[in-house]
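@channel sequence for tomorrow's demo:
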Amino acid sequence: MFSLLVLTITGLLAGALNAVAGGGTFLSFPALIWLGVPPIMANATATLTAMPGYIGSAWAYRHDVAAEGTLRLGAIILVSVAGGLAGAALLLITPGDAFVGIVPWLLLAATCLFAAGPRILSVVRARGRGAAGPLLSATAILTVSIYGGYFNGGLGIMLLAVFGLIGFTNLHGMNGLKNLLSAVLSIVSVTTYATAGLIAWESALVLAIATTIGGYVGASQARRIQRTELLRIGIVAVGAVMTVVFFVV
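structure tokens (generated this afternoon):
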């Protein structure tokens, strides 16, 4: 009952945070580990529970998704699938002890990216340069996709930054493609994880249901929140605390 309560509360909060400002992984991933799920399995399970939200967001933005720059939409998706598979495969061959050592650094990187997100995007949009070449664009998307297949935290900000760097200018289109690629990467990763038996299904079921409910409630209340920067500060604080805990433990 205690585990059920923790997963339910965590899922509700994570779903609401993802709907309003992002950052739900900072709650779901540590909660799973705290309940005794091994780190690699916790990472895989947290990715699974975030997947319904990604798919829903991608559907909501379906009319805004469009390619800019030198790569067609189909090419971008194919590169992302390849990167997601590579990242998921990399996770599968990572020894459990090694992943435990990597986790604090991943959390630190994700927290810093989330904290610097608005600044990164404003700088990228202010550059105003032309589109990057197809090879550079594909390499940038592939790199971020490998990261997304390996670890989910901070993926959205990384995708938006890369889109800006390779020539995207339409923010709605960028958000739409970010949601689409996040959904694609989660599907690819989760399929790989599930095939390898890395999903804690009992925990995943409770967390996924709670996250979906939290996301619906969060989305319905999002327009009433006037100062989302306070939410961002709170999420960064949670990420910072979790990072310190993982470094110490």
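heads up for whoever presents: The longest helix spans residues 96-127.
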